[in-house]
Amino acid sequence: MKTKTFIFTLLFMLLFTATTLAAKPTITADQQYFDINTGLYVLNGNVYIQVKNRVITADQAKVNMGSLEVWGSGNITVKQDDILFTADSVYVYGAQDRAIVEGNVHFTRTNLNVTANHVDYNWRDKNAFFSDNVQIEQNGNSWSANTAKYNITTDTFL
């Protein structure tokens, strides 16, 4: 009985460790350190953060590993599958699958280009809410708006 309990415990620990490691982000930068006062990783130069199939690059960033929050600035890219956001800054709240992308926002995917000053993107419902000086080019058509809501899954403006 003790052997079965030991084997079960060992298998459980291995499974738990593998699951935990699968969710771990990949983070690289030219310079990085852990700020014990804020509990944040501070990254500078060629910042690369990958969580699952989402990739964020930036000149600088701060990361809270516990909440999967990312504050990035300078030459921002946020990429997943065929969507790409570029901008001046990004705030990602990973626990809510949400990103706030600001400043010279440019969103691209096949047959679509959107520029704006602000976008709030939700990975759960796949909606991007663009605001402030929105310019849209889709399938050869162009228009402007104060705000626009776009669904990634349906490839339509709502």
UniProtKB/TrEMBL annotation:
PANTHER family, A to Z: LIPOPOLYSACCHARIDE EXPORT SYSTEM PROTEIN LPTA
GO biological process, one term: lipopolysaccharide transport
Upper taxonomic lineage: Bacteria, Bacillati, Bacillota, Negativicutes, Selenomonadales
Gene Ontology terms, MF aspect: glycolipid transfer activity
Organism: Pelosinus fermentans JBW45
Signal found in the keyword field: yes
Name this polypeptide is given: OstA family protein
Location of the Organic solvent tolerance-like N-terminal domain: 56-155
InterPro entries xrefs: LPS_export_LptA, OstA-like_N
Alphabetical UniProt keywords: Signal
GO cellular component, one term: cell outer membrane
Keyword Magnesium: no
Signal peptide start and end residues: 1-23
